[in-house]
Amino acid sequence: MSNSPRPAGVPGLSAVAGEYHSILCDVWGVLHNGVSAYGPAADALMRFRAAGGSVILITNAPRPRSVVASQLDRLGVDRTAYDDIVTSGDVAHDFLARRPEARIFHLGPERDRPIYDGLPNALVTEGEADLISCTGLFDDTRETPDDYTEPLSRLARRGLPMLCVNPDKVVERGDQLVWCAGALAERYAAFGGETIIVGKPYAPIYEVALRRLGEISLRPVRKSDVLVIGDGIETDVRGAFDQEIDILFITDGIHADEFGAHDAPDPDAVHRFLGAAGLGARNFAVRLAW
């Protein structure tokens, strides 16, 4: 692993692409902001694939890969930019499928319910449940984690474990930051509740993604041949660091205000930010581009 507390800035993916066979690329914050796609980012991945590389999009979206692919289609991200998608929702679906007896209380918006399609688990009310499946806030346009203080403390007192399907605490939606399931899981743990987290930065989602890379490339995958691309310090960077996989850290994402001018981040500020978290990165770039 060559992640360093003081990563070198690069103008784009082409500066390091020749060192890797495969990419695990974050979606929200790197390929789009929830409203608009980033054209140069998709172009960079298409160029990498055209040169023989493989690309898996790895996302904490609490939805099946098919739903994420359809969203990318609507935003204008060409499917030639990636080989496949691995979502936190898919990993959660597999987790629940191995526990068919679990009665689930779904904490999150209606749009996330497709992750339960095909499962034998019963979706029940809070009082009937023995497992919470948290995909986010019921209404992330108006609510904050503070609105959940009483229900989370009540659920924690009952001793119900919480499956956190999206470890992100916030994501960009256009020019706004909105709260995600990870923020509720953090509050739940503070109340003494048990949390089970399946997305980035935790190992299960990387195990699925690396296995899928091997199936695509028809050869064993060495972590030294893989590059992670992402913008989240506690998800993308920490996940890559813990897995001993190099990362290209994108600075103009959810942490952009930490680094000075968005188009010209201060390398010392990037270094301090990573160091304060006890992490490092191989390189950083303002945005994903070739």
Name its key features.
Rossmann fold; 31% helix
Molecular structure report:
This protein has two domains: 8-89 and 210-285, HAD superfamily/HAD-like (Rossmann fold, 3-Layer(aba) Sandwich); 95-197, Rossmann fold (3-Layer(aba) Sandwich). The model has no long low-confidence stretch (mean pLDDT 94). By secondary structure, it is α/β, with parallel strands linked by helices. The protein has a seven-stranded parallel β-sheet with strand order 1-14-13-12-2-3-4, with helices on both faces. The chain contains eight helices and 14 strands. The protein has helices at residues 39-50, 65-75, 88-97, 149-158, 181-190, 203-217, 233-243, 267-276; strands spanning 8-9, 22-25, 54-59, 84-87, 103-107, 122-123, 131-134, 162-164, 170-173, 176-179, 195-197, 226-230, 246-250, 283-285.
Shape: globular
Quote the average pLDDT.
Answer: 94
CATH topology of the largest domain: Rossmann fold
Strand portion = 15-25%
Largest sheet: 7 strands, parallel
Order of helices and strands: EEHEHEHEEEHEEEHEHEHEHE
CATH superfamily of the largest domain: HAD superfamily/HAD-like
Strand order, biggest sheet? Answer: 1-14-13-12-2-3-4
Under CATH at level 1, the class of the largest domain stands as Alpha Beta
Overall structural class, as computed from helix and strand content, comes to alpha/beta
Give a nutshell description of this structure.
With about 290 residues, this protein is an alpha/beta fold. The chain has helices at about 40-50, 65-75, 90-95, 150-160, 180-190, 205-215, 235-245, 265-275, and strands at about 10, 20-25, 55-60, 85, 105, 120-125, 130-135, 160-165, 170-175, 175-180, 195, 225-230, 245-250, 285. The strands form 3 sheets. The chain has a 7-stranded parallel sheet, sandwiched between helices.
